[in-house]
Amino acid sequence: MTNIFEELKTVWVKLSGHSYPIHVGIGAFSILTDELARLNWKGKIGIITDTNVANYYLSACEGIVKKVCPQGYAVHILPAGEEYKNLQQIENICTTMLQSGLDRYGGIIALGGGVVGDTAGYFSASYMRGIPFIQIPTTIVSQVDASIGGKTGVNHPLGKNILGAFHQPHSVIIDLIFLKTLPDKTYREGFAEIIKHGIIADENLFNYCRDNAERLLNKEFNYLLYPVVRSCEIKADIVMKDEKEQNIRAYLNYGHTFGHAFEAVTHYKTFLHGEAVSLGMVTASEVAVQMGYVNENIPILHREVLNKYHLPTHWQGIPIDEVMESMKRDKKTKAGKLRFILPRRIGEVSIVTDVSEELIRQALERIKTD
Question: Which one from 35, 82, 189, 193 is the annotated catalytic residue?
Answer without folding.
Answer: 193
